[in-house]
Amino acid sequence: MSTSDTRSDSGAASRARRNWGPLALALPALLLLVGVIGYPLFTVVLRSLSQPEWGLQNYIWFFGTPVNLVVLQRTFTISAWVTLVCVVAAYPYAYAMTAVGPKARLLLTLCVLIPFWVSGVVRTLAWVILLQDSGVINSTLRALDLGRLRLIRTQTGVVIGMAQVLLPFMILPLYSVMKGIDLRLVQASRSLGASPLRAFFTVYLPLSLPGVYAGAIIVFILALGFYITPALLGGPRSTMLSTLVQNQVLSLLQWGRGGAMGVVLLLATFILLALAGPLMRQKHKQGARS
Amino acid sequence: MNPNSPTRGAAIDLQNVSKAYGSFRALDGVSLHVEPGEFMTLLGPSGSGKTTTLNVVAGFTEVSSGALQVGGRSVVGVPAHKRNIGVVFQHYALFPHMTVGKNVAYPLSLRGVSKAERERRVAQALDMVKMRDFAHRYPSELSGGQQQRVAFARAIVFDPPLLLMDEPLGALDKKLREWLQLEIKRIHRELGTTFVYVTHDQEEALVLSDRIAVFNKGRIEQVGTGRELYDEPKTLFVGRFIGDSTVLRGQARSDGTSTALDVAGQTVTVPRRLDGSDTPVVLLRPEKLAIRRPGQMADTHNRLSGTIAEAIYLGSGSKYEVRLRDGSSAIVRSGLSEEGFRIDDPVELCFAGQDAKLLADDKSADATLT
């Protein structure tokens, strides 16, 4: 073996060491993920196929029971509405965060983050107080002689409550994309003849879409698995899948059926991600550099 | 785009335009007339008001006071998108989510140009900047020079009667810059559009422009051709900003027609005098100064002693920085055939009085340049 070979070998070895170093840093988190997500997930899948006996009976039951399908569809519908409400509310908010001075930006950021520090149960109970028939909203309406709105135990109430809880997950990715948009591009489009509105729709909006996609996917997926908020704010006509799972597992001790429901929700989410993936990748490539 | 009509540019007229940001006057009474089809360069150091002037004309900045006409019509209060002015930015400002072709077609789409016509004009504009083969690429796949050429095509594709350029070559390396300067000159000749070009690079201004407006501290110091600014600077700032120069300061005595200046014990005489009470200084261009060894001067009155502080071989000749007795430095250029000097050689400089410019002193001219 010549000297140059030796040198290149040791070079390759040091490269290999460099590659393994970062992975070792990720190891604790990786072990945690495998332990607390991977293993339970595996048992869920296993139980859906094995309890009370081996076979597909739990899946046959799931797709053979009309109420399950209604709830599955409703879960997706409510999640879609929550996502839509979040996009509409977060977009101008995130833009405002990029446009104001540092002090106002800090204030706006705090407004997004403070709800994170309050327990979801507490926030949902706050919504109960606001939304119930004798709650703040309805007593105000009554005082103004404007009639009353049915909010608690309706789908609308569930969407409002969930959107509020999930709003930060839409605002933060949107803000991080928006603050990277070069506003001089908007100025350029104005010089080329675009009115402010045209400049927004042809330049700013397309450049902000990666943030919209990222936020929408996070919010939608989190919404699919929501449990506390729909359970407390919703009624029987706004039950979501997680409530049914809880029912099967904790009330009926049907671990197999509950597992099957979880697996169906997981697969539906994977399919959705696979559909959204190409869209996001394409935008990413185009927006790679300004 | 119709390259066959030579006089299709718009005139620009700024009258006493001011722009204040709080107490800071970015523009302080700027008046400037640009002829249709002219190549006008706004030259000055950063913060001198040249870019503000461009932004005012483009409609990105509203004037605080004054009148502004483009093509004979007042555009004060007209939003940028209704001014029909092409703008090329230093940072290219290509839309990253559109291909080169879509970028160039953008102003045409906004104007409702039909698809066939759009394609024809995009191809023509890309041909003009030699970028036609890149129509399907994204801006991120192009080099800086290529991006700027696309930005150029996008700014001229809708036939604006006026094109504004804000240091468009500022981010590019020297060789590319020099080549693109010639391209810009060619396109200006072919289009006949009025060009207004902002730069802080005086060589670039001299290469490109029909006329140059020299900005300093929110005002225009002088407007003229490159030759006028070089040969007849009206202020010390202009004389120092354009080309190399030597400034002589000293105790001045003026009689009826001439001024004598005492520069560290040596007297130079210039056959002119300043009106008013300004302190006179003498400005000399390098080629007006002759450099000799001491004692070789025959019969000139204006001679200054010094030593060589820096010798630069330029190929076509040499450039010397000479430290004079009072510590100031002089810039001299000598031809190939003349003898060479080395650092620390004692030399004498001489010049004819009528070749020297007598200007009012302006200490801030030194500060701005360093």
From TrEMBL, chain A:
<feature type="transmembrane region" description="Helical">
    <location>
        <begin position="106"/>
        <end position="130"/>
    </location>
</feature>
<keyword id="KW-0813">Transport</keyword>
<keyword id="KW-0472">Membrane</keyword>
<keyword id="KW-0812">Transmembrane</keyword>
<feature type="transmembrane region" description="Helical">
    <location>
        <begin position="199"/>
        <end position="228"/>
    </location>
</feature>
<comment type="similarity">
    <text>Belongs to the binding-protein-dependent transport system permease family. CysTW subfamily.</text>
</comment>
<feature type="transmembrane region" description="Helical">
    <location>
        <begin position="76"/>
        <end position="94"/>
    </location>
</feature>
<feature type="transmembrane region" description="Helical">
    <location>
        <begin position="20"/>
        <end position="42"/>
    </location>
</feature>
<dbReference type="Pfam" id="PF00528">
    <property type="entry name" value="BPD_transp_1"/>
</dbReference>
<feature type="transmembrane region" description="Helical">
    <location>
        <begin position="260"/>
        <end position="280"/>
    </location>
</feature>
<feature type="transmembrane region" description="Helical">
    <location>
        <begin position="158"/>
        <end position="178"/>
    </location>
</feature>
<feature type="domain" description="ABC transmembrane type-1">
    <location>
        <begin position="72"/>
        <end position="276"/>
    </location>
</feature>
<dbReference type="InterPro" id="IPR035906">
    <property type="entry name" value="MetI-like_sf"/>
</dbReference>
<keyword id="KW-1133">Transmembrane helix</keyword>
<protein>
    <submittedName>
        <fullName>ABC transporter permease</fullName>
    </submittedName>
</protein>
<dbReference type="InterPro" id="IPR000515">
    <property type="entry name" value="MetI-like"/>
</dbReference>
<keyword id="KW-1003">Cell membrane</keyword>
Automatic annotation (TrEMBL), chain B:
<dbReference type="InterPro" id="IPR027417">
    <property type="entry name" value="P-loop_NTPase"/>
</dbReference>
<comment type="subunit">
    <text>The complex is composed of two ATP-binding proteins (PotA), two transmembrane proteins (PotB and PotC) and a solute-binding protein (PotD).</text>
</comment>
<dbReference type="InterPro" id="IPR003439">
    <property type="entry name" value="ABC_transporter-like_ATP-bd"/>
</dbReference>
<dbReference type="InterPro" id="IPR017871">
    <property type="entry name" value="ABC_transporter-like_CS"/>
</dbReference>
<feature type="domain" description="ABC transporter">
    <location>
        <begin position="12"/>
        <end position="242"/>
    </location>
</feature>
<dbReference type="Pfam" id="PF08402">
    <property type="entry name" value="TOBE_2"/>
</dbReference>
<keyword id="KW-0472">Membrane</keyword>
<comment type="similarity">
    <text>Belongs to the ABC transporter superfamily. Spermidine/putrescine importer (TC 3.A.1.11.1) family.</text>
</comment>
<dbReference type="InterPro" id="IPR050093">
    <property type="entry name" value="ABC_SmlMolc_Importer"/>
</dbReference>
<dbReference type="InterPro" id="IPR008995">
    <property type="entry name" value="Mo/tungstate-bd_C_term_dom"/>
</dbReference>
<keyword id="KW-1278">Translocase</keyword>
<keyword id="KW-0547">Nucleotide-binding</keyword>
<dbReference type="InterPro" id="IPR013611">
    <property type="entry name" value="Transp-assoc_OB_typ2"/>
</dbReference>
<comment type="function">
    <text>Part of the ABC transporter complex PotABCD involved in spermidine/putrescine import. Responsible for energy coupling to the transport system.</text>
</comment>
<keyword id="KW-1003">Cell membrane</keyword>
<dbReference type="Pfam" id="PF00005">
    <property type="entry name" value="ABC_tran"/>
</dbReference>
<dbReference type="GO" id="GO:0005524">
    <property type="term" value="F:ATP binding"/>
</dbReference>
<dbReference type="InterPro" id="IPR017879">
    <property type="entry name" value="PotA_ATP-bd"/>
</dbReference>
<keyword id="KW-0813">Transport</keyword>
<dbReference type="InterPro" id="IPR003593">
    <property type="entry name" value="AAA+_ATPase"/>
</dbReference>
<protein>
    <recommendedName>
        <fullName>Spermidine/putrescine import ATP-binding protein PotA</fullName>
        <ecNumber>7.6.2.11</ecNumber>
    </recommendedName>
</protein>
<keyword id="KW-0067">ATP-binding</keyword>
